[in-house]
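Box 3.1. Reading complex inputs
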Amino acid sequence: MDLENLTIKELHQLLINKEISAYELTKFYLDRINQKDPDIKAFLSLNDKALEQAQEADKILKTEKDLPMLFAIPAAIKDNLLIKGLRATAGSKILENYKASYDATVINKLKQQGVIFLGKTNLDEFAMGSSTENSAFFKTKNPNDLERVPGGSSGGSAASISAKMAKFALGTDTGGSIRQPASFCGVAGLKPTYGSVSRFGAIALASSLDQIGPFANTIEDLALVFEAISGLDQFDSTTSPLADFKGLSDSLTNEPLDIKNLKIGVPVEFFEGGIDSRVKQAVETAISWYEKQGAKIIDIHLPYSPYGLATYYLILPAEASANLARYDGVRYGLKIKGETFQEVFSKTRGIGIGSEPRRRIMLGTFVLSAGYYDAYYSKAQKVRRLIMEDFKKAFEKVEVLLTPTSPFTAFKFGEKLDPVSMYLSDVYTVPVNLAGIPAVSINCGFEKVANKKLPIGLQIIGNHFQEEIILKTAHLFDSYAPKPEF
Amino acid sequence: MISKDEVKHLAKLTQLELSEEELEKMTKELDLILNYVDKLSEVDVSNTKPLTGGHNLKNVLREDNPLEFNFDKDLLFQEVEFENGFIKVKRIIDK
């Protein structure tokens, strides 16, 4: 039996019918990790209680049949999300030995469903990066080509799903950190609406942009996990009462999309400039597939979206510089000895915090400082509103927008040396975070390079809290569209 | 656009020690980024209010009732030094 190719619903049936045990399923995935992860290096640490927890699950399976869909399903979790008693490094030396004292809300919700956590996945330090090369520990490789990056910052989670070392994974997305690695690794990844999923227990990067979301091999699995982790949470007051997605995953098949009534917008600005010709071709082919199914395709203008990246690289560092001030050598993790408080503070941070976070902390401090605040930070917040209003106007005309997820496919290690060229891989994803709207990335084909097939991602964007329509639009493609090579 | 002295000052403010070599590199990189973000100066925002994030965010009020919170006390203070029930840090102000 190819357990790794079954969907969550299929695995659930096998578990309920006692055709496999929770122990066997967990063991199967741990064996795959032992076999594949020495090459891919997606995991920073493994949960040594996973098999024990699977045995506990088997006791419950003996007597109960009415169990949640995610019961005993093995998952991988990005290492900036807290699981009580397990390490949470955020990919940083400063948290190398830090263990979480409580569960993030998303972890709590998954525990209530009975999910088995296999381990914690690699990421760019404090989720700052687009290739996972900024991890303070090691580089994760793209399972489609081991010479290339998996994308980032949730590179470990994306690679773990691509290599089928877990049934689903969680990541965080501040400017594309779920969608871009999903695109590079050829899996599905969802960035929910800001306010759909509680951020409580996620190590904060930029609090007005961060969202937690799932990775999976199919849209059906992705929807099941999203349904489980979303919802109003008393520990995160930015979660919304609109975040009620009960029944969403069933509705994918029970109430399928009426494609003939679907209006799809194509933002002209997302197909100009530095886009790779084969990525463009693949996304255009996907759009014409929808058109052939009967959807109406409408050209849309988002005139302020080309300013998204510049806006993002002012707002993000400003918020990050404040969030990372808590790593002071007193409260968490690493502590370097010194004579004065100043010395302890600056030595701990000097040794514990790597180059990309340093750059962003300094940039953030600069743009927030007196004399520069209006020119940089306040200006960026105003442009942010214009970017959001662009999207609002677009959603008066169409239900979803289709774009490439990233302007290019997975690049080689060390290829993007200066920070700005690295930042450009998120040019199509950051406007979505600035506007606070949801988007899913799904594989729509491959770029052929030498003897390798590099996945290309299609991004489907929706209005606030319209996760259902973007997932249904993606599900249709996932189920029926071909994935050609270019 | 940004000078070495300004970066030196930022290193002090952010408590991030920089070597002379790092200072040189950091100044160059920050300059590169600031040059890139300067494209925002083209945008007219004279009639636009700042957007701080979120969607229709409202103030969330509730009764101030204590709740049970499930956490591990030993792990909460894993690296923190205590003395007489207080967190111990190095002297901040000289005698």
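In summary: Chain B is about 35% helix and 5% strand.
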